[in-house]
Amino acid sequence: METHDAQGDRQQPVQFEMRSYCGFNGSLKDGDEVELLEYDVKDGLARVLRLHNRETETIVIAKSLKDEVQRQFENNSWPVRLLNELVTRKLRQKLEDPYFAWR
């Protein structure tokens, strides 16, 4: 990625990566002008969590696993419904099992 100072002079290029196991909100293509909003630099590599795509005037966010799990619970989506169903079935089985009742 090319970088520029406040006066617009070209600086040293910076390598960056944006990873997510859960996907991204927003899009980015080769050649887009971006502004890094939230990132860490380690060993000369910027690891980006959030950036501003100036070409599309959008914010691109790398979804975290924690945020995705939270969203799933808030929306009561299929993994949560499946988990609830499995727990309910297991409880019914235990309640109907005569051996379990005597334990």
How do you describe this structure in short?
This protein has 103 residues and is an alpha+beta fold.
Radius of gyration: 23 Å
Number of domains: 2
For the report, how would you describe the main beta sheet? 5 strands, mixed
Distance between the termini: 65 Å
What percent of the residues sit in helical stretches (DSSP H or I)?
25-40%
Q: State the secondary-structure class.
A: alpha+beta
Q: Report the mean per-residue pLDDT as an integer.
A: 78
Number of alpha- plus pi-helical segments? 3
SSE topology string: EEEEEHHH
Contiguous low-pLDDT stretches (5 residues minimum) are none
Percentage of residues in strands = 25-35%
Q: How many β-strand stretches?
A: 5
Q: Describe the global form.
A: elongated
Overview of the structural elements:
- With 103 residues, this protein is of the alpha+beta class.
- The chain folds into two domains: 1-63, no CATH class; 65-103.
- Helices cover 34% and strands 27% of the residues.
- The protein is built from three helices and five strands.
- It has helices at 65-75, 78-96, 98-102; strands at 15-17, 24-25, 34-42, 45-53, 58-62.
- Strands 1, 2, 3, 4 and 5 form a five-stranded mixed sheet that branches.
- The longest helix is centred in the C-terminal third of the chain and has 19 residues, at 78-96.
